[in-house]
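re: that complex we talked abt at group meeting.

here r the seqs, copy pasted straight from the sheet so there may be weird spacing, ignore it
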Amino acid sequence: MSESENKWIGKNTIRPDGADKVTGRAAFAADANMPGMIWGKVLRSPHAHAVIKGIDTSKAEALPGVKAVVTATDIIDFPVDTPVPLGIQDMRWMTRNVMAREKALFHGHPIAAVAAMSEAIAAEACKLIEVDYEVLPHAIEIDDALADDAPILHDFIEFDGKPSNIAGTLEHTKGDVEAGFAEADVIIERDFTTRPVHQGYIEPHACLVSVAPDDKTTIWSSSQGQFMVRAMTALLTGIPQSSIRAIPAEIGGGFGGKTIVYLETLATILAKKSGLPVKMVMTREEVMRASGPTSGSKSTVKIGAKKDGTITAAEGFYWLQAGGLPGSPIRGAAGCALAPYDIPNGHTFGYDVVCNRSKVAVYRAPGAPIGAFGVECVLDELAEELGMDPLDLRLKNAAKEGTKAVHGPTYPVMGYAESLEAAKVHDHYKAPLGPNQGRGVASGFWFNAGGESSAQVNITEDGNVVVTTGHPDIGGSRAGIANICAELLGIDYRRVSVLIGDTATVGFSNLTGGSRVLFASSMVVTESTNNVIGTLCELAAKIWDIDPEAVTWENGEARPAGANAGQFPPLTLEELAARANETGGPIGAGSQLNTAGAEGGFGTHICDVEVDQELGIVRVLRYTVLQDVGRAVHPAYVEGQMQGGAVQAIGWALNEEYVYDKDGRVDNPGFLDYRMPVASDMPMIDTYIIEIPNPKHPQGVRGVGEVPLVPGLAAVRNAIYDALGIRFNSLPMSPPVILDARNRKEAAE
Amino acid sequence: MTDTQYVAPQTLDEAVGAFAAGGDDARILAGGTDLLVQMEAGVVSPGVIVDVKQVAELTTIEETADSGFVVGAAVSGAALEEHPRFGEVWPGVLEGFNLIGSTQIQGRASLGGNLCNGSPAADSVPAMVAAGAVATIQGPDGQRELPVEDIPTGPGSTCLAPGEILVSLTFPPRPAGSSDAYLRMIPRTEMDIAVVGVGVSLTIEDGVCTAARVGVGAVAPTVLLVEDAAKALIGSKLDDAALDAAAGACSAACNPIDDKRGTVAYRTKVAGVLLKRTTEIAAERAQGA
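got the structure back, here u go
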């Protein structure tokens, strides 16, 4: 479909959730309340690493007002020797993350939970729980966890035949890297580190759970997947999925961090034990101590090229922190690192390293920014060494249709080179820079995902449309679906209401993640809408007494398909809906698909910074995100995704980090000292949307939301190099780090 | 779990009485921007909260006959900003005060609360120290006055005796050619806590600095009055040599810690940098006035 033919696809329609949000009507998880509701609180480990030798809850249970107490013995165990995969998670680790079982693995790890008549009583009861700990030495940083004498977190994990904190590896190989490096004229190899960073969603985890005496369970919670909540809660409590109704609340940010459960299982068991609805809301401190950031990392990246810039070989080794239980995003790091490039000989290797931090969770393109950071920094240095423009070096080696990526796939048509070409001619790339200013560029890739989605499209009796999908909307999916459905039906988008169903009202839909939602849900909505149009044509055919094939649907009306079909005035959607009762009954269609064809996404970023050389402060002056989005169904939301990803990258690059004390406790568990950017830190992030439609999708959609976090770390770092002449290979590049490096450079000169 | 009693006395005597009667568990509530956060975090659980916002002496701004100011300890940042004259005479004190928190916080936060919270990083305090502001304190045994720099005794503590309430802050009259400024270093652009904060107040006559005071925050257990930095400025034309000497004195006075907000080396260096920049702003204002 070209732009001119579209009435709604590609238009910035008013967002369906806007009125509720700006008037305070939107109901978030913590807004849910029930008569007779009581409050749950979690007792958390005061130690970073300890064996739990015993838990005595008797005093807590005796406290007036306490209605139930849970410990790990109330939660279904999954023995460590048998994997129990659920999506990218493993229930062996999930059961140990929602409640410590054999060991407390990080400071803040849940040990027990209490439900009581008030939050204050629940908190008091937590203090009365007596836990017998055997405190163990802890390992917070990767090098601590990999040291020869490192405390071993899990005695069942072995690597190279020895107990180890390396819980897994992943490798991609293409060609022969040794031979490739032998062909190179220039080889650059550097070591890098990045710090764990939190998703920083504003809304803390929250839920309300009611369990009836027959185990019929209702969960209201903030998550990126009501079906994920249902499945995990079922597995961890033994209540069958058919008895659990998980209702998604409006979500106050997730960025991947709400793709697993923390509180829902505990609240379900507390509600079942007490017979009363149980509400739990994390404090910000609990969010920062015990919910998952993404991994910190160390890496070594080596790239070789010929004098003309042709890359002959590239290699990357990545060690990623998993937190207390296995599962760091090594696939994202090792898989995405070299993905933008056509490299004849490539090798990437990832190590999953457990340590005494909170278990990592998904964070927007998990692992990919870590993978890209080292590669895009080395490319910047390589370009300088070769005397090439950094965009030209990337263009020379850009992957395109037909390129076989190091991580496996052969690419279909896609727009990476277009993002580089657009960057080269963009005003931003040519704008003059002042003193203490610098410019950097970097690129990035994310896989994107398809998978299961379901939808129901119903025509109301008055001829309007209600679409129900199964994905919490974190990036504008409702607006996108409304545009697509209205386009297909040929009606005003305001006549289409898009709702997010709960697990009882819509078919199984995999969680909101992997930049999959608009891709997958628009496929099922398209199929359902087309089926509805087929029904509408049949109804018109019945009214006109002609063959259904002789009816076409145009501009929201059924019309005879040409002169031979007969002369009938068109029948509108309203007219057909009004007569549905006499012609066939309710009009609606559902669709369930396991979608495929979500092709990867590529983007390129340009960043300008200014460095206050006396204070070490880096300010981002100008920032442009250029990305192939396939099809921008709702361009304002697409731009918002591109801007939001870039801002999170800038925060990761400049200031965000957890500060641990010597006892392995987070010393900055709040937004005051965990320094995410504030609005006034940022320039308006410019966007340049490139639309190379995904041929495997009816509207050409590609995932958009994750790619824009990937290039940003290196774009900022390369800009700082341009301003200061100092290459920072560790994040964050905070003021003390910048000032110290600058002073050392000055002293050396 | 204990109940908290809330009282809102109408007069200073009643406030002192209620505060003294409450003993160690009593807390003063001005804007509450520290107290309520501490209560929410479980750091304090007061037996009695004495809300002082009904007491006239704590909530008024008075310009004295000699062009000094007496600012009630509970006057909000928003109220002081709206005063027609205070910001003209003490732009540095006002800008330090107005940096605290967000717009919403500015409707509540007070100079008295910022001072009595005892944080070495309190944004309004270095400029008040530089201004030579004097605190008026009322207690069961009467009234006393103390220079602002003598109030905090360490992080979270002050020299106020049990039952004593900070009533107001008196800013002295200023000769012509005087002004002040406050700068802080934060990694972000707002909503942050000073890693270093520097207040400078000075007087310039015929291009020569004739009087100066320097207050530095977040580099020691309490906000410092750095007399050596002021001495380096006084008598100079604020030339590079004088500024370098003052910056050196400022850095030398630092006794910071390494913590999550900054390192010893960073804070020490930045204190000198900010001293120079703050002095330049104050001098520009003084000469423009």
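couple things i noticed - DSSP finds 21 helices and 30 strands in chain A. The first helix of chain A runs from residue 18 to 22.
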